[in-house]
Amino acid sequence: MAHLTIHNSNNRACKIFETRQIKEFLKFYGAHYEKWDLAGRISPTSTKEEILTEYKPEIESLRSWGFVGRDLVNLWPDTQNLTYMLNMGNREHTHPNPEMRFVVCGHGEYFLNLLSKNGSIVSLHVGAGDVIVIPAGLPHWFHLCRDLRIEVVHLFVNEEGRKPKYPPYDI
Fold first, then answer.
1. Rounded distance, CA 159 to CA 95, Å?
2. Phi and psi angles of residue 123, each rounded to the nearest 5 degrees, phi first
């Protein structure tokens, strides 16, 4: 189950668990969140193409953001170069285009740097069925949870937009 935590400068945290409130909070900052039903639609042994085909209607509904490319990303304990990939994603960065992730299984945490907007860092703990769209230019990073397991559908506008930009930002 997704939950959003607002970490403010006073070292106090506020948690939001209700989907509607998470959506409203993120929408205010240009991000998008929704929850897709996974019940009975795919199995743990579903292939990449089976997953992408099963969720085609939902994926198509996000095309208005300009997404044209898609892939399936698996991060497991035995993933080649996992440490390198985690170190890259766990550094604050931006993208020149929106970034969309749909969690098929596993879980992780997205951090959004809203310091310049409201003085806080926001973390969104995501799991199976969660969808997040991070707008272009919003500083963020990702942390994979202890079990080191997540499988996500990644939608992108173009190959250039997939590449992270690290500080100092040049977008």
1. 11
2. -120, 140
Note whether 124 and 114 are within 8 A (CB): no
Q: Decide if 123 contacts 109 (C-beta within 8 A).
A: yes
Q: What are phi and psi of 101, to 5 degrees?
A: -135, 135
Whether 133 and 99 have beta carbons less than 8 Å apart is answered as yes
- Predicted confidence at residue 169, as pLDDT, reads 58
Rounded to whole angstroms, the Cα distance separating 112 from 138 reads 7
- Residues of the chain scoring pLDDT < 50: 171
As given in the structure block, the two tokens for residue 98 are: 């929106």
Return the closest-CA partner of residue 167 out of 94, 90, 87, 88: 94
What gap in Å lies between CA 145 and CA 86, rounded to an integer? Answer: 11
Contact (Cβ atoms closer than 8 angstroms) between residue 92 and residue 139: yes
The secondary structure element, H or E, covering residue 112 is strand 99-114
pTM of the model: 0.88
State residue 3's pLDDT score: 95
Burial annotation 98-124 (CB, 10 A radius, 16+ → b, else e): bbbbbbbbbbbebbbbbeeeeebbbbb
What pLDDT is stored for residue 171 in this prediction? 42
| DSSP state, residue 93 | B
